[in-house]
DNA sequence: TGTATTTATGTAGTTAACTACGTAGTTTTA
DNA sequence: TAAAACTACGTAGTTAACTACATAAATACA
């Protein structure tokens, strides 16, 4: 990280968060590839949600993973193309599309589980510093829910 | 934040970092607007660097702010369009383009300084939790420089 | 000194999220 | 019970970063 950004510090925090996110995502991609697994890190929240909860609608998934529904739809499209998930109309409510994992999806998850474990260990070793990044994020997320950056500046 | 992501925890960290970055950037936009200042948060690193260091080339700015040069070029284009910076050829090295702030740029910075101060205070109140996010990021950045996520997983 | 390499800049296209808007079912209400 | 409002889903276009490739100037080297 550069001198000037370090000096200006906190004002460039958004930039730094984004860069960190990007590096982690890219390394994630490499790790899946290194294990011979065709899987994108960005698919994780959807796949994991469906694995945990079974059949869900588009909006339920979007809410669960915290994305907007258009973002979710584009992830679902990719996953359907990979034949990792499938969808069918909800008989009770014709507007809804119910998504679930395919056999292939379930099998891939079994294959990924040990890799997820290793990733978890690697991330833990990386993030477990004096100020724990994971906990820090959780704390900030909670504070933002009560009162965001904008409101805090306004009410100074 | 949703249940499933919380449960899957650390594996979705990249997603969470990105979302946090995004929220902070958006609130930053709103704050500038609320103060009647026409300025994008993403311009901050470039403007601040030029303010601190004076005349710099494209690559020098890119290195300083930690972006790739194409990203930097597109920021520079926007800032030139806003007439906040100007450029001229380097006489010593005809490949280089030297960027500097215009009068308008310098004036805008004077106008923004008190707002930056308030933002800094608001961010401090938001980020100063038990596990300080700013310090956590710095620590993780340092660890990643020594050995990234990919290498850590590989060498487990 | 002419050729090869490196460096600085630029362009094109990609990515992964977003907002805005549109349509079709479902539910509420006058 | 017809109209209004809401909800679910989808598409189009935007954004802010990126990678890959191209070109021109400067430098190194045979």
TrEMBL record, chains A, B:
GO annotation terms (biological process): response to stress
Domain spans labelled HTH marR-type: 10-146
PROSITE patterns: HTH_MARR_2
InterPro entries: HTH_MarR-typ (IPR000835), MarR/SlyA-like (IPR039422), WH-like_DNA-bd_sf (IPR036388), WH_DNA-bd_sf (IPR036390)
Gene3D superfamilies documented for this protein: Winged helix-like DNA-binding domain superfamily/Winged helix DNA-binding domain (1.10.10.10)
GO molecular function, one term: DNA binding
UniProt signal peptide: none
Record key words, sorted: DNA-binding
Record-linked PANTHER family: HTH-TYPE TRANSCRIPTIONAL REPRESSOR YETL (PTHR33164:SF43), TRANSCRIPTIONAL REGULATOR, MARR FAMILY (PTHR33164)
Name of the protein: DNA-binding MarR family transcriptional regulator
Record organism: Chitinophaga dinghuensis
